[in-house]
Amino acid sequence: MEAHIVEWLNLLVRWGHMITGIAWIGASFYFIFLENNLNRTKNLREELAGNLWAVHGGGFYYLEKYKNSPQTIPKDLHWFKWEAYFTGLSGFALLCIVYYYNANAYMIDPSVMALTSTQAIGIGIGTIIGSWIVYDLMCKSSLVKQQKLFAMISFLLLVALTYGLTHLLSARAAYIHIGATIGIIMVLNVFFVIIPGQKIMVASAIKGEVPDPSYGQKALTRSIHNNYMTLPVLFIMISNHFPSTFGNENAWLVLAGIMLAGTAIRHWFNLRGKKITNYWLLPFASALLVSLVIYTKPESKAIEQLNTKKVSDMEIMQIINQHCISCHSSKPTSTVFSQAPKGLMFDNLNIILANKEKINAQTVNAQIMPLGNTTKMNEDERLKLGSWIEQNN
Ligand code: HEC
């Protein structure tokens, strides 16, 4: 029953997280689009920075951006902050429901480091808080004025963090904590800098004063940082579906490559928005992604290593029974899962055969199943499973 409730909690919170996340990133993309496409020259009133016509959903829209604040601040002023806050809160809740609640299965990989649940959760939360502190200090230092250097140092720190986490936690927990770290930095940027900056702007506009431009400048800097973080963070949130990324021996390197490609693509779009044509960013990102495809290619050495000895169906059933059935069965005995995860029930040979590609990806290549290796599957058993799958191809 408990596992069933947790599954529904997971479902509802994840659903909410997706919805608020889409609303947040969607609004942020929309405002970038506006900035890039405002008419800033033709037939503008003196007080305007730009305007824009659009057609959408069967209606025409007309929008104006002011150079400074308007004469009077309208009563109904939309802020766009709850999307960000709820994305952050639901994301953290999800982290607790999926990862911290079942830390043994999801956070710890004894072959990486035999941590206790408390240690693993401590590392997770410590990473998020520590990273925010370092990032915020960097933003408050003079480093922030040198954009390129700032970007390079941030990226290197992030890669170092990824390297560190993949050597402490299970690979998927390491990935998701990098995602959570970036995501929470983005939310805290909104909470601590962007919205307070806007509040000061509005307050001084109401008093009829010219707002101190430094607040706007700081908010803009954080906004730009958030903009560059969107593509990497969105990949990480779906990374759990792709065992060839986090299941790779050098999972940190794969993630570094993907983050770099994502940031380069974002940068290309930003330049294009400013009508600057760049010729190397997209080819660079594509080449990087193609080299990742090649780098993560699974090696099929299972048969060679076993001297082509035939593995029997009986042996495989035994391995699966011992290592998988506690979760992947019509009646799981696991205390964590009351229903077979992903509906995969390996109760008979035909089902195992039907899912052999997935099993190969998860258990032989990426070695991320059994989850947290709670059933202590060894290398020899993985090789046998791999050869048997190759024999049945
Ligand atoms: C402790 C429970 C547990 C054990 C034991 C376990 N699994 Fe899983 N398995 C899971 C969970 C949970 C998921 C879903 C992961 C996710 O949400 O991405 C999963 C997913 C999978 C998937 C599907 C992945 C996908 O995204 O399509 C395969 C294939 C798989 N397991 C194979 C195995 C094999 C083979 C074994 C035994 C060698 C095994 N599992 C042992 C819990 C377990």
| Mean pLDDT reading | 92
Strand portion, in percent? under 5%
Molecular shape: elongated
Unreliable sequence segments: none
**Which small-molecule species are bound to the chains here?**
heme C
The number of strands is 2
Main sheet summary: 2 strands, antiparallel
User: What is the H-and-E element order?
Assistant: HEEHHHHHHHHHHHHHH
Rounded to the nearest angstrom, the distance between the terminal CA atoms is 40 Å
What structural category characterises the helix and strand content?
mainly alpha
Assign a percent range to the helix content.
Answer: 55-70%
Please describe the topology of this protein.
Blueprint: H1 2-37, E1 48-56, E2 59-66, H2 82-100, H3 103-106, H4 117-140, H5 147-166, H6 171-206, H7 213-238, H8 243-246, H9 251-273, H10 281-295, H11 302-305, H12 313-323, H13 349-354, H14 356-365, H15 379-391
Antiparallel strand pairs: 1-2
Helix pairs in contact: 1-2, 2-6, 4-5, 4-6, 5-6, 5-9, 6-7, 7-9, 9-10, 14-15
The chain binds heme C.
